[in-house]
Amino acid sequence: MADFDIEQAKKDVGRWYWHGIPTFFRCEWNEDPAAADIALIGVPHSSGNGSTERDQHLGPRAVRNISALYRRSHGRFGITPWDLVTINDAGDTPLPEAMNNDVSVEHIEAYAAQFEKAGTRVVAMGGDHSITGPLVKACAGAHSSLTDGQKVALVHFDSHTDTLMHLPHWLGNKRSAAHWGAYLVEEGHVDASKSTQIGIRANVGTAGSLNTSDELGYRIVGMDEVEEIGWKGVVEILRERIGDTPVYITFDLDSLDPCDAPGASNLEPGYPGIRIGEAVRMLQGLRGLNVVGGDVVCLIPTKDNPNKITAQNAMVVMFEMLSLMADYIHTNR
Fold it and tell me: Measured at the alpha carbon of residue 105, what is the angle toward residues 100 and 106, in degrees to the nearest 5?
């Protein structure tokens, strides 16, 4: 017993996800917006997509729990993000009126704005897709130091366009998971002419329902086209449209094939989705671009399989986003 080194023992068991207090990727917990180059936050919100499936607010807890097991280094980039920049788990967005979506959207924006003012980039784990609107509003546009006052080019992975600008509300929610892609363009935070929506399924909506994205100026790379041109073709389209514009990435897990994300909301049966390996390649294809923010959304842990594969793939996407940011920050210092 006298030979038992407790502090060394803590280090030895630190990589196991069931040990200790869970944080994203075992990061230090520090809620000070100015204490990191990149802040990882949870946005435990479900009421923006209340027509379909609940429990998306449990996503941050699930990913914190599982992410301790993930690798610390990026094999293809040859970097260890935590060695290049300071990355903290900055906690969860407080949502005291969680069942009131449109009030919660205002609270999310106010919380995220603290990080923009500190010059800190955010990778958020949701939460349903209504969280993207306030997160982008907080970090992009005329007020933003992160973008030098520019709009962002949106890289949007999804089965659905989320640009229903001709619907006044979605079951009472005016800032819902179905509307954010439109109001961010209309209110001056997203440059649709430089933005791309990837993975949209051919079977969603009704005839003409994709026209709203076309009217706004988005480029849709639907799943049929993804299958035709492959991940390299998608990266070419993305980089050509983005140019040197700051980038925001939003990744809806229902863009993945249900094999890779059974615990996502709004699954689309009958049509394949993006496989996780292809999605990773697409994200890695953005290396060198100025990614100022990102989010992963629509994880429903209560319908994930026993291996927690959806939560694990959410973790993978989150890691790719923070790696893009860390690599860019380090290279441009």
Answer: 105
